[in-house]
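Dear all,

This email documents one entry for the complex benchmark we are building for the journal club exercise. For each entry we list the sequence lines for every component of the assembly. Then comes the predicted three-dimensional structure of the complex as a token string, followed by one or two observations. Please use this as the template for your own entries, and keep the labels exactly as they appear.
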Amino acid sequence: MPIGNVPKLKKAKIFKLRRTDPFLVVQQGVTKVFSKHLKKGQVFTFSLQASFTPSPDETLGNLTECFGQNNTSLEVGYSLTPNYG
Amino acid sequence: MERTIVQINTENWNCKIPIIINLSSKYTTQLQKPFRPLFMSVPRSSYLYFDKEKIFTHFEPVLKELEINNKNFYLQFNSEPVKWNTPIGVFFDMVCKSTNLPEKMPMSLQINFEKPPKKFIEFENETELYNYFASTFKESCFLLAKSATITQKITENIMANIWNGLKNLSFDEYKRSIQPLEINYKEQSSLAIRILLNKKCIQKTTKPVNQETEELLTLLDIFKDLDLIKEEKLVPMTYLIQGITPDPNTPLAFLSASFSHPDGFLYLIITTLN
């Protein structure tokens, strides 16, 4: 989910991810998709529930179970500046 | 002697683990003479990262002798790397205490100056570890409230004070810092639990009370959930919370209030023995 003035996908892109994959896979995947739009030194901040950034080594299975919708999907926010305190 | 929850917390914060750090064997054979190990006593609730400078300074002469330019290092127990972002007590319970091998004290770690294995998170500086800790703390707070009610109250100032409490190993300072967040484990919507089942992390969010019976949920309910009860008996296993094995009928709310780590999670380490 794009937050603020960040590049957005014109068409939804589907990533195949496993529950055992670490959150790092999402961070790397999104950064790769938008690599052309990022200026030198710019990095995305990722967040769940607009409250925190999960650790890169947390599994998507754990995060989906605790913060996802119906234990099947997980909404991840990305922004160029932290969108939470 | 009965103890209050605050006393138990204080004891957990004061509890230390003795460790000995030796050079990894790949370096010892290259040295003219054996290099002295480093003995330390590290707080259970803290991170070994805070002692990184001290460890580096101790082993710096070896780097000079072996002409190693890499200033980065990581520690390992046998072949298990010590993650900088894991509370040292959790690591100790996972690798030393929960196995059925005789427990050896002090915990023996080896220092390695090569590139750490994949999946190992490196922290360039203390600010990065602080950011990691702040996020983990907010994650546990979100789970406790099942909403952003608590996380919204966490100002930069509160977070900095919580961090200082951890760094100074002052439970009083920590307790004072989290007071405005009004966390009450018995009344929270949920509990934040991290289970390390045979070293695999399972994060759980469990209500403190059974909604139907209104009875407090216990460790046994967690074991049932994890399919660790066969024929009404626990499967052969060890389980530890802050280095001890509580009665399986202990309420989770009490365990969370008394034994949670400074990051807000209650860590339960389970090792099945078959």
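Observations: Chain B has nine helices and eleven strands. Chain B has three domains: 17-112, 126-183, 188-272.
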